Amino acid sequence: MKIDLKAAAEGARGRLTRKEAASYLGLAVSTLADWHRRGLGPASVKVGGRRFYRVDALNTYINEGE
Predict the structure, then answer these.
(1) Which of helix, strand or coil describes residue 13?
(2) Domains of the chain: residue spans and CATH
(3) What count of other Cβ atoms lies within 10 Å of the Cβ of residue 28?
(4) For the whole model, what pTM was predicted?
(5) Counting C-beta atoms within 10 Å of the first and last residue's C-beta, which end of the chain has fewer, N or C?
(6) pLDDT recorded at residue 17
(7) 32: burial class by Cβ within 10 Å (0-12, 13-18, 19+)?
(8) SS3 53
(9) What is the pLDDT of residues 17-66, one digit of tens each?
(10) Are 57 and 44 within 8 A, CB to CB?
(11) Residue 34 and residue 3: Cα distance in Å, rounded?
């Protein structure tokens, strides 16, 4: 389920766009895209040609300090 950045910050489960995920992580969108191309960063899913990041995957990435 697609959620907004505010809901993610409040602990809601769901997925964020790449732009929202980059903001959530404090990164530039281009950094997140580059990491994906290089096989780095948090896990993502492709839905309808767009890349999404699950909030739980972002939190795991943050907590593991990768």
Answers:
(1) coil
(2) 5-64 (1.10.10)
(3) 11
(4) 0.83
(5) N
(6) 92
(7) buried
(8) strand
(9) 999 999 999 999 999 999 999 999 999 999 899 999 999 999 999 998 75
(10) yes
(11) 23
